[in-house]
Amino acid sequence: MAGPWFFTLLCGLLAATLVRATLNPAVVLNLGAEVIREKLTQALEDHSATAILQQLPLHRALREEPAGVLRSLVDAVLKNIIWLKVTSANIHQLQVQASANAQELVVKIPMDMVAGFNTPLIKTIVQLHLESEAQAFIRLQTGASGPTRLVLRGCATSPGGLRISLLHKVSFLVNPLANKVMKLLVPALPKLVKSQLCPVIELAFNDIYAELLEIIRAPVSLGPDRLEFDILSPAIEDNVIQFNLGARLLHSKGTVTVTKWFNNSVASLTMPTAHSAPFSLVVRQDVVNAAVAALLPAEELMVLLDYVLPELARELKSSIRAISEKAADQLGPTQIVKIVTQDTPELLLSQGSAKVAQQIVLDLFPTNEAHRPFFTLGIEASSEAQFYTKGDRLMLNLNELRSDRIQLMNWDINWFEPEILKNVTTEILVSILLPNENGKLRPGIPVLMVKALGFEAASCSLTKDALVITPASS
């Protein structure tokens, strides 16, 4: 009998094995720079970032310049200008790219403005062209009590990103004044960007992060059941934000809701080619299997074979005659085939293809009044599973059906080798079970995330252990 030391050693070895094992999340959502850029661009527009640039208080900023070397220059300039303000502003296409720090992304927001000032020296407005670039960093922030989240920090004007020039030539009388104004704006404009625009940029990012959480947590309808995701941890890799997600399947049984959880596990998860799409949703095989099982629960089908499939009824009768003449003669026009799918189907993935395996029980009753079947067959069947997309819906269709193994479980006629009935029972399953299951799969699975991230349609692919959803190429 093993002593306590043996069990202690065994537990230690198991713990060490688990530590060394790589735990993979149930689902991974990868968001490329394109998605972040478009979302942040829209959020800045919603927060009227351009209007904020147009309202930058340039004149007041010069007046409030603290005492120092520039104070006398400021006083001299202010005596000769009546007003100074931004007359037009534009924010150009944002850039989101990997930072030198592997755990952050840098966001660059280029902007240009036209500012004008009025002076008693001339009647026309002197116009200046101001080009600048705000820069901020998307980083991971781990709170003392809360979960790790993404934040935008370090917002300021990019080093060397400020250029100020005259938009038009001015007279020699005004040229010295214009040069002084431009000199004063060099320190003043970055301060204004930091105090006026940067808070708006941070607010816009907080909004899109909250929106992303809503998109991730939106339930996926699976008939009466639903699949929900939640964030386990965010990460930043190269120029991609990666959300590692847990999943749960909520199954309703009357008034009770049963929850099945999918979290980090040692199950493998093959990621798609790094960052090849604007976004990718990678769903581990066990989660996909649970979704398929929710759409195809165990069920029972009873069919009057002679009425529905008369040719197959005659073929079945002919095959039974080879087993028992008496049994074949007892088959009436109300003979019933009963098909029961046991448990739930099992989805088996491989690179680029998939199949669904099922356990099926088939009974044949000679008439609709018979209480005992002629025989009961246990069938292990499989079908090719074809995943495809239609708009933003994930579709699944089962093609063909093979009886991989068939066994006689019960018989009320002469014992026989079940292989005799393999062909005809397979045809019955193809004609009855397959259309019934494809009918349940026909509505598809809505992937609301696709349109929520700004895309019209999705595409899908299979790895050896995951289903991958990406935007459809235009």
Short description:
By secondary structure, the protein is α+β, with helices and mostly antiparallel strands.
Keywords, please?
single chain, 474 residues, alpha+beta, eight-stranded antiparallel sheet, six-stranded antiparallel sheet, 20 strands
Topology summary:
Blueprint: H1 4-20, E1 27-31, H2 33-46, H3 49-54, H4 58-63, H5 71-78, E2 83-91, E3 95-98, E4 104-118, E5 126-141, E6 149-157, E7 163-166, H6 175-217, E8 220-222, E9 225-237, E10 240-253, E11 256-262, E12 279-284, H7 285-295, E13 300-304, H8 305-308, H9 310-321, H10 325-330, E14 336-350, E15 353-365, E16 375-390, E17 393-411, H11 422-441, E18 445-446, H12 449-452, E19 458-462, E20 466-471
Antiparallel strand pairs: 1-10, 1-12, 2-4, 3-4, 4-5, 5-6, 5-7, 8-9, 9-10, 10-11, 12-20, 13-14, 14-15, 15-16, 16-17, 17-18, 19-20
Helix pairs in contact: 2-6, 9-11
Describe the model:
This protein is an alpha+beta fold and 474 residues long. It has helices spanning 4-20, 33-46, 49-54, 58-63, 71-78, 175-217, 285-295, 305-308, 310-321, 325-330, 422-441, 449-452, and strands spanning 27-31, 83-91, 95-98, 104-118, 126-141, 149-157, 163-166, 220-222, 225-237, 240-253, 256-262, 279-284, 300-304, 336-350, 353-365, 375-390, 393-411, 445-446, 458-462, 466-471. Strands 1, 8, 9, 10, 11, 12, 19 and 20 form an eight-stranded antiparallel sheet that branches. Strands 2, 3, 4, 5, 6 and 7 form a six-stranded antiparallel sheet that branches. It has a six-stranded antiparallel sheet with strand order 13-14-15-16-17-18. Helix 2 (33-46) packs across helix 6 and helix 9 (310-321) packs antiparallel against helix 11 (422-441). The radius of gyration is 35 Å and the shape is rod-shaped. The two termini are 68 Å apart.
